[in-house]
Amino acid sequence: MSARVSPDGSTATAGDGATPLLSAEGLRVVFPGRRGAPPARAVDGVDLDVGAGEIVALVGESGCGKTTLARSLLGLVRPTGGTVRFAGAPLAYTGKALKAYRKRAQLVLQDPSGSLNPRHTVYDAVAEGLRIHGYAGDERAAVAEALSRAGLRPPERFFLRYPHELSGGQRQRVVIAGALVLEPELIVADEPVASLDASVRGEILALLLRLRDELGLSALVVTHDLGLAWNIADRVAVMYLGRIVETGPVESVLTNPRHPYTQALLSVLPESEGEPVVLTGEPPDPARIPSGCRFHVRCQVLASGAADAVADRCRTEDLPVLGGGGRSAAACHWARQG
């Protein structure tokens, strides 16, 4: 069992409180290297829980492993190591088990245009999941209810439309309706508003919140935008180079960030006070993860000399995996000394 780190740096075991709806423990996804290169550790030891009726934001730069982690949680990428559990039961990777699981956990992608077949009507796009899973009820009524829940009313007005006849926001609502029609318990939304105009983004976020309140739906929202996390999430997990480096209730993390990486991400938000932190370089290659703290080569606190007391540890001593539950914690030698 992986070590869990509490806010004071002590460790505890998982299992406190109710069983999470979705849980990952020690999750690893390693891709083979090309032409003799070392394997890439895209997800390198992650514990992450999503409770019933909870919205968790998974935040980080492009290339940090967020999407690979999300896809592995849905069984779309088989982990190299670790365990995924849904409602307490380990995820099985047989075709039958995965088909049953994907009825309960649905993916919503960032590009609604790419998610919808341009030759299919809205009705067929939403009904596709029902047909795949052999739905025996009233298909027309189920499609109408899903469209209505997604905010497309009256739903019959959209049945025979094609994606090119819809706005970007309407297309994203169709994608969400296609997930809702199977009555899932969890949705994983990968950058759900990244391709939308600012005027529409708030509507889609409000929709996700309403679905949580009305249906008890859980959600893992994958995003690079901490502002989005602030508006929608109950809890946030900040990811860097394959690991969760800070986690906790959204207000705690975003008003009092402890990890220098989280501080840097927050500093560039328009409403942030003070000077923005410009991180040097790109995140390291996941095939060549630095020793010690994986952020130390870009860390603005270490570079400024403020972390000289722990500088050697930052460069050489690895940090334990953060717990996946609700406790606030940061994988940072400098934060833990405070």
UniProtKB/TrEMBL annotation:
Transmembrane segments: none annotated. SUPFAM superfamilies: P-loop containing nucleoside triphosphate hydrolases (SSF52540). Keywords: ATP-binding, Nucleotide-binding, Transport. CDD domains: ABC_NikE_OppD_transporters (cd03257). It comes from Streptomyces laurentii. It holds the Pfam family ABC_tran. PANTHER family: D,D-DIPEPTIDE TRANSPORT ATP-BINDING PROTEIN DDPF-RELATED (PTHR43776:SF7), TRANSPORT ATP-BINDING PROTEIN (PTHR43776). This is ABC transporter ATP-binding protein. GO terms for biological process: peptide transport; transmembrane transport. The keyword Membrane does not apply. GO terms for molecular function: ATP binding; ATP hydrolysis activity. Residues 27-266 form the ABC transporter domain. Belongs to the ABC transporter superfamily.
